[in-house]
Design brief:
358 residues, mainly alpha
Amino acid sequence: MTIIGRLNRYARRTAPAGYSSARQQQAVRRILLIQHCFYVAHLFLAFFLAKELWPLVFSAGEPLPLWPVFWLNEANLRLTAAGIILFLFGGAVGAAMLVQARIFRVAVAIGVLLAAALFNSFGSISHGLHIWFWMAAMFALFPSVGEDEILSSRALRLRVISIFVATQMLVMLFYTLSGLFKLTNGFTYEPGAISSLSLHALSVHVSASLFGSQGGTILGDFIIENPWLGWPVFLAVLYFEIFAVYAVFRPSIQRMWGFFLITFHLGIFVVMGIAFLLQPVQVLLLMAWSPFAVRDTSWRQLAIDMPVIGVVARELLGPRPAAGDRQKFWAAEMQGLALLIAICAALFFGRFLYRLIF
């Protein structure tokens, strides 16, 4: 069997058991409500983006245009910026009022792409807009019909559910790649540098981030002075980031994963003073409020369903499985871990090629 076939079997084995028509309709209602919440949140984002972009265009001098606004230097900068902001606002208002109209959802994705490129052309990088764009692009694929028609059609229900799960996987892939890059840096750091897995890694990173800032943060000095407390927190963050994609296939741990990632972003603010405003909203909508998340999961089941840790927890806390069940469990776990190892190996190889070429 091919690797794709094995991954498909792994996904089916770890997905919620056969959704009935009623459960599909319940999940679709929640997904469509999440879609509405996203576009309402985007309306506020459009306002704040315009508030940040307009003075930037008037006072920051000549930009270094990035794709897809590479033509900025050949056009009237202020007129072009005004057009992008109005396009962003128009798409946001239209999508918030007529979410079933795909033209407005496509306009939202294009507006975010143009606004992010314009903002980044002035020298700073807004990472939050990257994931927001991809989420908007995925939501633009939802059927352009009313809720009643979607609920009455099995094909449309499955399409909505498939697009939402794909969005979950795409957004969680950002966290998985972030964790894998941190992990690879722990083994491929430059001579004389501190490994990302070092006991002092977090305290050094926090001190470097706060160096030259005018004021401290709530917990920044505490983490710098007590690196042994920050180290296990960093390892926990590394664990939850690396296995973020894995959590999409485990409904019982989706809510926990979502709330931990939200806490992670809030922790960055209280420790380093860096505010992540968009990422907590995305994680809240996709994971913590997921229509597939299992409510009232016992701590025992959470421990068993945790990646890697669950292998030990299953032996210690779970019922004694039959020989066939044990073999299937280990096969599923090994296939999931093999996927992550393959991604990690690809990152190592890509890093090697980059250094070799550049």
